[in-house]
Amino acid sequence: MGFETPGESFPGSAFYYLADEPYLPPAGGSISSGGTAGAFADTALEDAVNGPAARPLFLTGSGADRARALQCMTMAIYYEAATESDAGQRAVAQVVLNRVAHPAFPDTVCGVVFEGSERPTGCQFSFTCDGSLARAPARKFWDRAQAVAAAALSGAVYAPVGLATHYHTIYIHPYWADSLTNVTTIGAHTFYRWKGAAGLAAAFSDRYAGGEPLPTRHAPSRTPDPAGALDPIQLARSYEQSLAAAQAAGQAAGPVHAGTAGAPIRAALPPPAYSAAIQSRGGDQLYSGDRLPGGGQLIGPHAQSGEWIKHP
């Protein structure tokens, strides 16, 4: 290292070699792994976006939330694409982010990565239930995956995969592949997004709010899951059925005003479980916001705002 080389150090210089430089997304959208085998510039992919790009995700929540999200994202990138190019790793990270933003999946990074890990097979990311976690990560590849994860969780968007929520290796062809829209193939993975309403940009409406669970596999469960609980086709069908029910409930409740596009969906959701004290005061009506003044109305002492002062 530099601080060990004569002429390239000064008293205290070892401090500056404790960690790599923080990753900043470059203007061109492609990152370099500093000579790691398999890395290449993917400018052609950047220009071949199939469908709309996702919106950026910025971490919020506590320090524990941030640390857990980074750990889970790094694990997903490392165990799914450790030897892939930068493009391949960024694509995997984008799929995780897209799932976080979609109501069909958990709304946390760790929740998405470890979904279904309590099952012996059929987990959403195979490394969480096939024994891969017993293999200690190689530091060099882990650090590289962590840099990509940190960028993804700091607002970097990898546009070539668009709104893809699923992928598989090029060595297999799962039964659901033909039912989804093929977005692109990057390295050893082919990426897909849903057809229909589930794959539209408007469907990716969840906002990240922290609350990350532990970055570890779920405890094994002996309770069988409902048939097709995590099946891509069934997930899309369930989302569209819920959306149709929400829209119908919204229409029955009355017209939706401009700026309240999410009102039909919210109207179909059950109210939170309030305490007895809150229930006695009106429950959910206390927070409905239907007693706010209408447009153009002023309250009490503000009714004459803007008029000349008659008695200075």
Biggest sheet architecture: 3 strands, antiparallel
> What is the name of the CATH superfamily of the domain at 53-237?
Cell wall hydrolase SleB, domain 1
Mean pLDDT: 77
N- to C-terminal distance: 76 Å
CATH architectural arrangement of the domain at 53-237: Orthogonal Bundle
Poorly predicted residue ranges: 19-49, 255-269
Q: Proportion of β residues? A: under 5%
Describe this structure in words.
With 312 residues, the protein is mostly helical. It has a domain at 53-237: Orthogonal Bundle (Arc Repressor Mutant, subunit A), CATH 1.10.10. It contains eight helices and three strands; from the N terminus they run αααααβββααα. The protein has helices at 43-46, 63-81, 86-100, 109-113, 139-152, 232-253, 263-267, 276-280, and strands spanning 166-169, 181-186, 189-193. A hairpin with a 2-residue loop joins strand 2 and strand 3. The chain is globular.
Which terms would index this structure?
single chain; 312 residues; mainly alpha; Arc Repressor Mutant, subunit A; three-stranded antiparallel β-sheet; 8 helices; 3 strands
Layout of secondary structure:
Elements: H1 43-46, H2 63-81, H3 86-100, H4 109-113, H5 139-152, E1 166-169, E2 181-186, E3 189-193, H6 232-253, H7 263-267, H8 276-280
Antiparallel strand pairs: 1-3, 2-3
State the gist of this model:
The chain has 312 residues and is mainly alpha-helical. The protein has helices at 43-46, 63-81, 86-100, 109-113, 139-152, 232-253, 263-267, 276-280; strands at 166-169, 181-186, 189-193.
